[in-house]
Amino acid sequence: MSFDKIFDSLTLPNGVKLSNRLMMAPMCDDSANQGKVTAQQLSYMKSRATNVGIAVTGYAYVNDHGIQVEGQLSASQDSDIDGLSKLAKAIKSSGAKAILQLSHAGRESGISAKNGKMIYGPSKMVFPWLDYEVQEMSLKDIENLMEDFKLATRRAIKAGFDGVEIHNCNHDLLQQFFSEYSNHREDEWGGSLTKRMRLPLTVLRAVKDEISYFSDENFILGWRISPEEIHGENIGYLVGDMLEQTRHAIEIGIDYLNVSLSGGLNYDLDSKPQGYEKSFAELFKELTDDNCLLYIGAHVHQPEDIMKVINETDGVYIGRALLLDANFTKKIREDRTDEIIASISREQLTQLGLPDRLVKNYLQPDQYQKGIPLPGL
To answer: Is residue 42 one of the residues assigned to a domain?
Structure first.
């Protein structure tokens, strides 16, 4: 099988050309020090960004009420710009477009809670898996959130990133507002589908306006989503709702859509939402076609997996394969696919050039090992 198609160039709606169809998936590498970029993070991102067209950082919090994990990157202060500049430079030196992912974890802000910060979401609720209270955001809190996303975008521009990606998925704050499970508000920010999608789309529009004012048309705007939210019998939203939100996002003007089918979601490329004859990939491709690029991943471990994805989409994001083998894409390009590292031992894990805390997390029981093939774990 020829894998040449993987390395075809892509052109974004804003005219920016990407060297190939590959994206380094946004993954929290747990390597920041109180939000600041570290030497380990620079080395890790530079090595993994080689031979991909676009590389997205792990999620960076926009204020100190929205920190989910230790070692999470910050874009919440002007003092972050210096480190972010080094990170952007490291990624770009590998030939990839550098994208800073922006996020607020909302109710999932466990580190902020540990630090004594108020934790808020769309509504005041008790969540059985959380050991802290979640307060309802006031109108002023929402106004401040918009400003925080705008300022974080401005910092990304000043730091020299090629773009930002808004984290509207994986149960973070923007998704919480869109979810009927989490959002019980009765004002203009909750209730109907139109009102529930208002906050994520208002954030997107605010970021778009900030880009227009402080940068130029070459600055990239990405939008990452979870296609549906189902908690057993509790439904946050279904794919039809997210398709409607995505239509509005495209109208606002995104350059690419990044559909999260990985993480805690047990999906693959062929997965179909209940009641649909088409897969998630087919449904979203119908929306994005000729409007913006579509990236999807999920269980991409070999070049054959990449080919399967790009036959349905524009590009593919790669996560675990790059963690296991920093030269994964290089080996594909050089026709050395038989040398790709697909499984490693516990001892070898420490030799991959990954940040220390990331390695530690993979070795902890009930952490990340279920998502990566490590014999004996």
So the answer is: yes
